[in-house]
């Protein structure tokens, strides 16, 4: 049956969590957004300069001057991802189990909130608590892409776009590498989101089963560590298997008269396919876990 | 219906009907299955076998309709301590899909009803236990349910708070709600109930209106007689009568009394007395021991705890 709340923003559980978040004095408010346009402007200028500066020497020069900034951004992003992937499951693991501990889960379940709405509302509530982190991560994405694009431009040995119009194999080589690098970084940027989704879903599922919040958090961390180890193995296996392919492809392609440039892109194919596979596994796993949690609550 | 937890059978073919508009007192010792029954009715548990209906809706397949019709207050109710009193009610009103425009008025009305209007802006943690209980009761009323299922609403309260809860229930009954209320203390709810059901070890041992239950007590009244002599003879005479049971001697100041269960109404009792005197027994005392629901409860339940 359709719920009354049109969007998740109207959901009572979500609003409850927002109200709690707003009560915390130290939480950033709208001021959070002030720094963003300035940052975006700088990065855009930097990216454009690196990409379009005439000679290779010039580009390298610009790149070097920008290195501290790039490093800072990467470090921030890395810390954010690390923090969020481990804080999110703790929050979701506590969510439903905490209600059970307080005795309010029974109350919630006898209201008109359906089990699905309950679980999704709790999930949204947890993510709402992480909004500054999640938003920063989202806002950093364009920079990361820009950086990837410009460093791609550098690594493709000055052939793009400067040599683009002159044609020839060198140009194609550049485009192939550039596209490959861009795709790789794009997937690399998607990966943390799927990590967070999976970890949050594991927490939520354990929370639906557990009697107390503390038990739920500990068990979730255990399960997540297990899953990480399993995925690491999958990753290693996939790359090992796929690593054989480019060699075959390359000799085939070259023999077939394919330009060397595109073949350069093929070199990156195994990495790209592996990370795409892992991301898909994680997202599908997350969705399944959330539905398992809903199903479990319906049973009792 | 039947409910099993693993090997343990908590409810054994329980069959119970509560009439509309009744205040049904559900009484039984610890572990009798009161909470289990109520949780099934509140759609929080599924019966292992059997079915239950609340205002015509099945608790198995029409859970949403059932939830709309009932207000459930669990025995260990939970509150969110970090919310203000009005926010707590507002939150649950939202869960019952009450539009934001009407919620403000509604919370004010509910707080008025349970006498908490002056604590509106306080945090729930700052309330006393009795106040929390009243707040919880207010919560169950948010969507104006037709049926209230209250699991030991007066447990852990001081006598004054108990009376307040009782007054509140009376008021709700006046509003035309059907109330199912559980307790282990019969005397506590016999003042507000119209019907009583006694449950033990997952089985209903007695049920009926309060008047019927009282009649049942009178149907088996405890009578005590004092004789100046011929005690053994009288004992035999009593035991041979079909309307007398469980004759036992009671000693009082060295003299012997007899106490027994007599089944019959007032006329029967009068006839019995004249026959007793006609038989030539030296009767000096004839008294009916006052029996109340509590006695009935004690007699019907044998202290079997599953
Ligand atoms: N979740 C559960 N798992 C296993 N057994 C349970 C569970 N809940 C209740 N029981 C058992 O079912 C029986 C009935 O319990 P229930 O809570 O319904 O009793 P009650 O009449 O409410 O008792 P009280 O007066 O103490 O509240 C008890 O023997 C209890 O041990
Ligand atoms: Mg109970």
Strand and helix layout:
The complex is a heterodimer of chains A (300) and B (306).
Chain A (H helix, E strand, L loop, with lengths): L11 H12 L11 H18 L3 H47 L1 H7 L4 H15 L1 H25 L13 H41 L3 H43 L4 H7 L2 H31 L1
Helix pairs in contact in A: 1-5, 2-3, 2-6, 3-5, 3-6, 3-7, 3-8, 5-10, 6-7, 7-8, 7-9, 7-10, 8-10
Chain B lengths: L2 E3 L2 E4 L11 E5 L6 H8 L11 E2 L2 E2 L4 H7 E4 L11 H11 L4 H14 L15 H12 L6 E4 L8 H16 L3 E6 L2 H4 L5 E6 L2 E7 H10 L1 E7 L3 H9 L4 E9 L2 E8 L3 H13 L4 E7 L3 H8 L6
Parallel strand pairs in B: 3-8, 3-9, 6-7, 7-8
Antiparallel strand pairs in B: 1-2, 4-5, 9-10, 11-13, 11-14, 12-13
Helix pairs in contact in B: 3-4
Bound molecules: adenosine-5'-triphosphate and magnesium ion.
What does this structure look like?
The complex is a heterodimer of chains A (300) and B (306). Chain A is an all-alpha fold and 300 residues long. Chain A has one domain (33-299). Helix content of chain A is 82%, strand content 0%. Chain A has ten helices and no strands. The longest helix of chain A has 47 residues, at 56-102. With 306 residues, chain B is of the alpha/beta class. Chain B folds into two domains: 3-209, P-loop containing nucleotide triphosphate hydrolases (Rossmann fold, 3-Layer(aba) Sandwich); 219-290, Alpha-Beta Plaits. Helix content of chain B is 37%, strand content 24%. Chain B has eleven helices and 14 strands. Chain B has helices at residues 34-41, 63-69, 85-95, 100-113, 129-140, 159-174, 186-189, 210-219, 231-239, 266-278, 293-300, and strands at 3-5, 8-11, 23-27, 53-54, 57-58, 70-73, 147-150, 178-183, 195-200, 203-209, 221-227, 244-252, 255-262, 283-289. The model of chain B has no long low-confidence stretch (mean pLDDT 82). The interface between A and B is medium-sized, with 24 and 28 residues. The complex binds adenosine-5'-triphosphate (ATP) and magnesium ion (MG). Magnesium ion binds next to helix 1 of chain B.
């Amino acid at each position: 049956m359709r719920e009354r709340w049109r969007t998740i923003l109207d959901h009572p559980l979500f609003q409850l969590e927002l109200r709690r978040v707003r009560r915390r004095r130290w939480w950033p408010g709208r001021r959070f957004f002030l720094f963003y346009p300035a940052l975006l402007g700088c990065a855009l200028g930097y990216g454009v300069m690196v990409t379009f500066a005439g000679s290779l020497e010039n580009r390298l020069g610009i790149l070097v001057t920008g290195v501290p900034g790039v490093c800072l951004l990467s470090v921030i992003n890395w810390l954010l991802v690390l923090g969020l992937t481990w804080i999110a499951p703790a929050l979701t693991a506590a969510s439903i189990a905490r209600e059970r501990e307080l005795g309010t889960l029974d109350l919630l379940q006898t209201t008109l909130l359906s089990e699905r709405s309950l679980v999704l509302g709790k999930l949204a509530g947890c993510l709402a608590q992480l909004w500054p982190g999640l938003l920063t991560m989202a806002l950093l994405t364009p920079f990361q892409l820009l950086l990837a694009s410009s460093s791609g431009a550098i690594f493709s040995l000055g052939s793009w776009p400067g040599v683009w119009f002159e044609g020839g194999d060198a140009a194609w080589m550049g485009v192939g590498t550039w596209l490959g690098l861009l795709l790789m970084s794009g997937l690399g940027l998607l990966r943390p989101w799927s990590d967070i989704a999976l970890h949050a879903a594991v927490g939520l599922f354990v929370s639906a089963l557990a009697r107390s919040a503390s038990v739920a958090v500990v068990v979730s961390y255990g399960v997540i560590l297990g899953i990480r180890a399993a995925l690491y193995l999958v990753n290693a296996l996939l790359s090992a298997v796929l690593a054989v392919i480019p060699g075959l492809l390359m000799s085939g392609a070259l023999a077939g008269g394919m330009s060397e440039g595109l073949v350069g892109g093929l070199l990156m194919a195994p990495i790209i396919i592996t990370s795409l596979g892992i991301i898909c596994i994680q997202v599908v796993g997350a969705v399944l876990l959330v539905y398992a949690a809903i199903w479990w609550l319906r049973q009792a | 219906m039947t409910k099993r937890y693993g090997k343990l059978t908590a409810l054994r073919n329980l069959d119970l009907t509560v009439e509309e508009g009744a205040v049904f007192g559900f009484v039984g010792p610890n572990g009798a299955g009161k909470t289990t029954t109520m949780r099934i009715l509140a759609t929080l548990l599924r019966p292992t076998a059997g079915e239950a209906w609340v205002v015509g809706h099945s608790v198995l397949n029409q859970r949403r309709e059932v939830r709309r019709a009932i207000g459930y207050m669990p025995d260990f109710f939970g509150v969110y301590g970090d919310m203000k009193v009005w926010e707590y009610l507002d939150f649950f009103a939202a869960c019952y899909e009450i539009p934001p425009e009407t919620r403000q008025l509604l919370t004010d009305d509910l707080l008025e009803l349970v006498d908490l209007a002056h604590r509106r802006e306080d945090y729930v943690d700052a309330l006393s236990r009795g106040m929390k209980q009243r707040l919880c009761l207010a919560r169950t009323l948010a969507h104006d349910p037709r049926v209230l299922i209250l699991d030991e609403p007066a447990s852990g309260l001081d006598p004054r708070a108990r009376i307040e809860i009782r007054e509140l229930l009376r008021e709700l009954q006046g509003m035309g709600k059907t109330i199912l209320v559980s307790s282990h203390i019969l005397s506590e709810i016999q003042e507000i109930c119209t019907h009583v059901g006694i449950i033990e070890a997952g089985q209903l041992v007695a049920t009926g209106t309060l008047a019927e239950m009282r009649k049942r007590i009178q149907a088996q009244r405890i009578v005590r007689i004092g004789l100046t002599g011929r005690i053994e003879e009288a004992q035999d005479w009593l035991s041979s009568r079909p309307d007398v049971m469980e004759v036992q001697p009671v000693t009082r100041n060295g003299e012997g009394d007899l106490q027994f269960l007599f089944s019959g109404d007032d006329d029967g009792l009068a006839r019995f007395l004249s026959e007793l005197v006609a038989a030539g027994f030296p009767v000096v005392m004839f008294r009916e021991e006052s029996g109340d629901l509590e006695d009935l409860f004690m007699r019907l339940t044998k202290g079997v705890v599953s």
